């Protein structure tokens, strides 16, 4: 052996190396390698070589700016700019009346007719009027606690971010409308548990920033986008055009109980008076109220000659009887906020209170008896919704004078109810069914029902 001095492991290793060498020798790999080289060389002989491009000059030209060359920009050819990502655009809706046909259907179907028939039927029943809750706060809290959210009461009603909602006053059928940022309006019969309970219509080309069922005739759903104010009339199955403006529209409210006239706010700061009874789609009056931006307008529930505008740093109350094209002075101003106000609304019974939401992360409630407007409370509240969420709006419970609802950035996700003293009464939440921020909320005028809309087009019904 000659390797007796090696250990057993080393002898075993040498044996393996010897056996492996014999095995590879038997495979004759060197002959295979030579054959492959021969084939490769033969294939390359038939390949024609590409001519090398002519070599550029070795000497590079040093770049100098136009400033150093003392050349005017106009004398230099403008280079083509890089392609920019296209802005998000949605299908343009033509002017004039539009048929009430769902987006995903070319004509009226039985399912759509069922939805519209339900809307028409519940609109024929006269509501008993808003019942005011006169119970004490403890009983009201118990009532809020009894309101729950179930999986069957969560539905994606529109495709994009919810910007506005309206709830039908019917006490027999829960019927909700939601408008999104693309101009879609989704109608949802919550009592219909099947998928056919909701349909989407497209009467606008821009975000639907404000919607109301007519208090005089709930068969009419009025909706407002940047360019138009429309009335969806279910009795005729058409979206009529009430007002069209070159200036972007932001919000509206009815000036009379019969909903024939409305005050309309413009993103540019002006307000306009619109009369539905006059022919044409132009406003009756456009008034400069001194605002750079008007986000919401709201009419006093008792003294309807007064309306409130919000959007600049301050919130102001005006008398519609004294409006003129220029030089309008407010009846009263509500000071205190330091950034843009997202919303301001009168309390629903007497109108003696105002709740505002501001980008300075504050909620405020004020007593405006005789328009003396002292601030009763100013509460810290996280209103930093960012770019992708609709801004919060605090809305009063229409059944009470002293409680309002607002979205929340808190986790777990929730919708908050405050008393006018600033006390948090209740937080609506559900770990299984509510996992997003509900910026827009609406409360039923006579029943214990709350609907919250999020930024993916989903509605949650408590």
How would you describe this structure in keywords?
462 residues, alpha+beta, Methylamine Dehydrogenase, Chain H, four-stranded antiparallel sheet
What's this, in brief?
The chain contains 5 helices and 29 strands. It is of the alpha+beta class.
Number of separate strands: 29
- Which class of secondary structure composition applies to the elements? alpha+beta
Identify the CATH class: Mainly Beta
What fraction, in percent, of the residue positions are helical? 10-25%
Number of domains: 1
Fold-level CATH name: Methylamine Dehydrogenase, Chain H
Instruction: Name the CATH homologous superfamily.
Output: YVTN repeat-like/Quinoprotein amine dehydrogenase
Strand content: 25-35%
Low-confidence stretches: 75-86
Overall spatial form: elongated
> Strand arrangement, largest sheet?
1-10-9-8-7
Task: Describe the protein's architecture and organization.
The chain is an alpha+beta fold and 462 residues long. The protein has one domain (98-124, 140-461): YVTN repeat-like/Quinoprotein amine dehydrogenase (Methylamine Dehydrogenase, Chain H), CATH 2.130.10. Helices cover 14% and strands 30% of the residues. The protein has five helices and 29 strands. The longest helix has 20 residues, at 8-27. The protein is elongated and about 115 Å long.
